[in-house]
């Protein structure tokens, strides 16, 4: 089994996947908050023996709470993103560990009747434990449920602060500060989850726009085919019916009607071949305007420069270059995550050169349905006009296409 290259794996992720990885690990780092206070409480045992038992329990609780909080963050974010998860079980377990940890550590810590000041240790530990446990709750539950749940956790963890002899006013101040920190952390975590859901929704909308662009191309083809065949098939049906009636009456005009049917059928065959092969006119300017509209609707900045000689090109050349723009635009939407796209038309001697370049090409190609015959079809269209299609190297993350047609 080969070694996985992290850089290549990262480049293979789509933008929404990269965004989720960043936001998810931002939440995971917040789950590590109980560890520093637990380690600091252990280092303080060398100076104050009153912290000994509490410090050792705090370290165990900190490690356990970190593990449960990581799992709670993961399942809660999956639930928020509408993926299967068992977030409620982990939220209940994580909250239970946090409240039980506060009781155990604070009751074993320094007490006011021994002359020590338990407020700094109690306030710091309670605040850290509670806001760490409240983050997954804010992500996994709607605000109408997460706010009461956070308040219940705060009230459940408050009694030990009074039992160890802390001044009630100071204890209420510490709990108020903890509530403010919990509110800030909860809003931040909820915002992270909301931001990630927006990223996925935008990505889904982008894919929908790409599918709509492909559907529009199919509808355009079906309209062309309908325009060609609708009238001709209707005429063939009417003339065939007329020929049948004339033949039954023994009229010689029946042969003339069938000859016309044959002529119309042959003409229809030619027109269908023209549609399939792209010989029907696809206006260069019309395709350029349509490409700009479709790309901008997908939030892709599109710059088109057809120059001053576009109208002077022969109609067959304009038609085939219009087909190139149409197919290339579809490819940009389906096979990239482009932010910018440029289409330029120029002349090189006795040849017209159409260049399309876009960014947003992933290191690992985006999978798509179909057999991938878009570029092959364009090469066939261009070959019919003695043209050619090339895909020169444009650098990492970029795609460049050149279509040349002799004038």
TrEMBL record:
Domain Histidine kinase/HSP90-like ATPase: 321-399
Domain Signal transduction histidine kinase subgroup 3 dimerisation and phosphoacceptor, chain residue ranges per copy: 217-283
Record field: transmembrane: 21-41, 53-70, 91-109, 121-141, 162-185
Keyword line: Kinase, Membrane, Transferase, Transmembrane, Transmembrane helix, Two-component regulatory system
Pfam families per UniProt: HATPase_c, HisKA_3
Taxonomic superkingdom: Bacteria
SUPFAM superfamilies: ATPase domain of HSP90 chaperone/DNA topoisomerase II/histidine kinase
Record-level Gene Ontology MF annotations: kinase activity
Annotated PANTHER family: NITRATE/NITRITE SENSOR PROTEIN NARX-RELATED (PTHR24421), SENSOR HISTIDINE KINASE DESK (PTHR24421:SF63)
Protein name, as recorded: Sensor histidine kinase
UniProt source species: Kitasatospora aburaviensis
Taxonomic lineage: Bacteria, Bacillati, Actinomycetota, Actinomycetes, Kitasatosporales
